[in-house]
Amino acid sequence: MRIRDDDALGEPEFSMAPLIDVVFQMLIFFLVATSWASREQSLDVELPEASTAVAKSAPADELVIDVQRDGTVALSGRVLARSELGGALVAAARANPRIPVTIRGDRFVHHEDVVAVMDACGQAGLSNLAIGTLEPR
After folding, report:
1. What CATH code is assigned to 45-131?
2. Which tens digits make up the pLDDT trace of 119-135?
3. What is the per-residue pLDDT for 15?
4. Domains of the chain: which residue ranges?
5. Cα gap 114→118, rounded to integer Å
6. What is the pTM of this model?
């Protein structure tokens, strides 16, 4: 028969290293995730207000096209020339033809600039379009 020696077992130890590793991994994940989410908000686009505006959560694969006051176009935070926009939209349509596209035009932008972006989306085969607005204050 084996007799248990309580003194030989010692105190159980709790290792902090795995816990610290997990916390650092979570910190890195959230830092990266928030940098992607704030990319579009850094552009200087003043959206118009709409009385029927509804706040929606953006899907992860949504394309956001910003049209600034001077007519400059940015696709998902990256400024593009008008000639490059069509190619980028065609590539996105090949990957997913039903990808949602939100066009956020500055409230002082010329209407023809927004229509040109909508036309480029149509030529690329993208039809799931939305116009970005703000809720009234």
Report:
1. 3.30.420.270
2. 999 999 998 998 887 77
3. 85
4. 6-37, 45-131
5. 6
6. 0.59
